[in-house]
Amino acid sequence: MTLLGAAPDAVADSLRPVVASPMRLYQTATRLGDLVRLSQRGIQVHRLVQTLVLSQLAASSRDELRRQAGGLVAASHPGEPASASTWPAWSTLLPHLLALELGETDDRQLRDAACDAMLYLLYSGNTDAGFRLARHLFDQWRQKLGPDDPHTLTAASELAHAYHNQGRDREALDLTEDTLTRRQRTLGPDDPATLRSASDYSIVIASLGRLAEGIDRAKDVLARRIKVLGGEHRDTLITRGQIASWKGETGDHQTAITAYEELLTDRLRILGPDHPDTLTTRANLASWKGEAGDHHTAITAFEELLTDQLRILGPNHPDTLKGRGNLAHALLVRGALLAARAQATAKLEAERRLFGLGDRRTQETQKLLNEIKRRMGGRSGPSNGRRKKR
């Protein structure tokens, strides 16, 4: 019902007074009688009734109604897809968005919303659904709009993003390189979309072992983003985090820690404590403190972070599951084996349910749990990592 009233100007003249008034909209909906199920949440129509109504409409009428529906959906854009606060609204809107034949639409606003929907799925942890939507739209838009169209290139960028999240970096590399080349040619080297592809390329090549090249490219992206977007733009902060992490991977733990402490201060001020990027910064800071040998601080930070991840992201989000794994590993290193086993077991149970036994994430967690059990030597009671003297 909220969607129907989102943009009165998008619907036919005869409907505008109805959708502009919540009371008139509800009264009109009640006149549909037994054909629908009406509640405060909205109108439910049986699939057979939908099919019957659509079959009696001329093609031109269907196209016009779809155009009006597209206007209502585009006007209901929930906001920044990277912010967890918008995810419930995105979850509500997504079925309506997917019903609008996005691959065929000529509505640029609707295509913009579809691009943000891909990001919502990927940021909220629905990688497989995000991959399917990005793959579908990339194929459709490349054929309809051409390979250099901005929406086609956005779909290509998010498809590469999904490949990377799935651990398929070889496939991500080819697509990211092609997208970067096309954006440099059509948009120029300093366009924000080009810089997004340049950043993606540095991430993929670093993941494939070309760490020094990844750092050099990321430094170039950072300088350009500061010039074009400013030092406090979210994309600029992302690049700072990437460079900090890769510095840590070269063995320079203290530089990574200092960089993440500064980044956390900025993200708390700019994005707030509940933004997923802020949570990621806390996770990375805790990880590098653990790598530097400060295991007690790392464990405390991981425990506090997991509490917030469960509250903000939910128990099944990839970052929450990774948080459990990080905490389990830190506890293992510290010798708190019983607590480590509890976290690894919870992570394994979730991954078995979500991904199956054959998934690489599930298998990695099983290896971690096996190592914890091996260290415990079959003991089931509390452990601080030392045997009692006899």
Structural class comes to mainly alpha
Distance between the termini: 72 Å
Individual helix count = 18
Main sheet record? 2 strands, antiparallel
Radius of gyration: 25 Å
Strand arrangement, largest sheet? 1-2
Instruction: Give the % helix.
Output: over 70%
Summed over residues and divided by their number, the pLDDT gives a mean of 93
Strand content: under 5%
Shape: globular
Helix and strand sequence: HHEEHHHHHHHHHHHHHHHH
**Residue windows where pLDDT falls under 50 for at least 5 positions:** 380-390
Query: How many DSSP-defined strands?
Result: 2
Q: Could you walk me through the main structural features you see in this protein, from its secondary elements to its overall organization?
A:
This protein has helices spanning 16-19, 22-30, 47-55, 59-75, 87-98, 108-123, 127-144, 150-165, 169-187, 192-207, 211-228, 234-249, 253-270, 276-291, 295-312, 318-334, 337-355, 360-376, and strands at 36-39, 42-45. It is an all-alpha fold and 390 residues long. A two-stranded antiparallel ribbon has the order 1-2. Helix 17 (337-355) runs antiparallel to helix 18. It is globular.
